[in-house]
Amino acid sequence: MKVEFAPLNIPLARRLQTAAVLQWVLSYLLLAQACVGIIAVLIIHNYWFLYVPYLTWLYFDWRTPEQGGRRSNWVRSWTVWRYFKDYFPIHLIKTWDLDPCHNYIFGFHPHGVLVAGAFGNFCTDYSAFKELFPGFTAYLHVLPCWFRCPLLREYLMSTGPVSVSKKSVSHVLSKEGGGNISVIVLGGAEESLDAHPGKFTLFLRQRKGFVKIAMKHGASLVPVFSFGENELFKQVNNPEGSWLRRVQEKFQKVMGFALPLFHARGIFQYNFGIMPYRKPIHTVVGRPIPVLQTPHPTPEQIEELHQTYLEELRNLFEEHKGKYGIAEHETLIFK
Question: Which residue ranges traverse the bilayer (predicted)?
Answer without folding.
Answer: 21-48
